[in-house]
Specification:
The protein is an alpha/beta fold. It folds into 2 domains: about 200 residues, P-loop containing nucleotide triphosphate hydrolases (Rossmann fold, 3-Layer(aba) Sandwich), CATH 3.40.50.300; about 100 residues, no CATH class. Strands 1, 2, 3, 4, 5, 6, 7, 8, 9, 10, 11, 12 and 13 form a 13-stranded mixed β-sheet that branches. It is globular and about 55 Å long.
Length: about 350
């Protein structure tokens, strides 16, 4: 257990180190960038990405049900999963029969499978279980997206729309619409992995149907011009939920009152944990202790310290910590807000209007 904990701490520190290099607050002077030595590997990333993109261009975009891929060109959290959940819920509310497709990062199982709200996140992955819980929609999961999609459709043959959480770079997944998501950090240093955060060149945005910008501005400003169209979205805190016990969910104001004067411990096993801590601060929740976990980190009892009065975490972490939690443990529910123009364009596209 001690070795596993050490490995997780090392992984978390390495992830944060890479993000700091890839998303610097200011671009380094010419000739001073420490990622220059990685250009051969970055070239290889570009070569592989180009080959995959050519395969994707040959895929059938008219298949049914429609498949909407919501993905990243960059690594690191951008609000993609809350966005997937909200797109799926919005379309379901409009009368579409919707399913969700996801990969299940760091899950024990690798094969295609269906995931329900009560399934074990250690076996199936934290994001698939979380999406099943917050949307109550059918969820298919697997490294092979095509196999997971086939399994999902076999179990739910009436589905009309599939929303895929990532998969932009998956050449085995036919898609109707491709949506590339960025936050205010934009493309970071603009370099391909491992020299930078890009999974594929920014030039590939011309193949995407739309760019979705979270908190537009800053480094993300110029990305809108690279794709056929761009829309905005936000991810906003909604309320706090207890992990255990019969306590009701609390509004942001009520939880702030509950937390006043208490020692708060915050933990986040997401790609950008600092964003979660900033959100807590914006809600008036000052966490004295903050624990940055690696993305999709497993739950461990030593992450719930005895000296904390309240422990707050993300919804993604909550699905893993539920069996270990006590009455001190709460998670923050967040929800993506869609730009009305995007919602209209999305439905028009699904109804058969031209997407380009």
């Amino acid at each position: 257990m001690a070795l596993k904990s050490l490995l997780e701490r090392t992984r978390a520190a390495f992830e944060q180190h890479l993000l700091a290099r890839w998303f610097p607050p200011a671009r380094p002077p010419a000739g001073k960038d420490s990622t220059d030595a990685l250009w051969p590997l970055a070239w290889l990333t570009g070569f592989i990405a180009g080959r995959r993109r050519r395969q994707i261009r040959r895929l059938d975009r008219t298949q049914r049900p429609a498949v909407i891929v919501v993905g990243n060109l960059v690594v690191g959290g951008s609000g993609k999963t809350p966005l997937v959940a909200q797109i799926a819920r919005h379309l379901s509310d409009q009368g579409w029969r919707v399913g969700i497709l996801t990969r299940g990062h760091r899950a024990a199982l690798r094969q295609a499978r269906l995931v329900g709200p009560d399934d074990d996140p250690a076996r199936h992955g934290d994001e698939p279980v979380m999406l099943a819980r917050i949307t109550r929609l059918p969820v298919g999961c697997g490294i092979d997206r095509g196999a997971a999609l086939a399994l999902l459709l076999a179990a739910h043959p009436g589905l009309e729309v599939i929303v895929s959480d990532d998969g932009l770079q998956h050449p085995g997944l036919a898609r109707t619409l491709e949506l590339a998501v960025f936050d205010e950090r934009g493309a970071g240093n603009g370099r391909l992995l491992p020299a930078g955060p890009l999974r594929e060149p920014l030039a590939h945005l011309r193949d995407m149907d739309a760019v979705l910008l979270r908190e537009p501005g800053g480094a993300a400003t110029g990305l809108a011009a690279l794709a056929p169209r761009a829309f905005c979205f936000s991810v906003e805190p909604v309320r706090f939920h207890p992990l255990r016990g019969d306590a009701p969910a609390l509004s942001l104001d009520d939880f702030r009152a509950l937390a006043a004067g208490r020692r708060i411990h915050a933990l986040a096993g997401i790609a950008s944990p600092q964003r979660f801590f900033r959100t807590l601060a914006d809600c008036g929740i000052e966490a004295r202790d903050r624990h940055c976990l690696s993305d999709h980190a497993p739950a461990s009892p030593d992450l719930l310290p005895d000296d904390a009065d309240l422990i707050v975490m993300t919804a993604k972490d909550a699905v893993k910590f539920m069996p270990l939690a006590d009455e001190r443990c709460w998670y923050l529910e967040v929800q993506a807000r869609l730009e009305p123009a995007f919602a209209r364009w999305l439905e028009e596209s699904l109804n058969g209007s031209p997407t380009h």
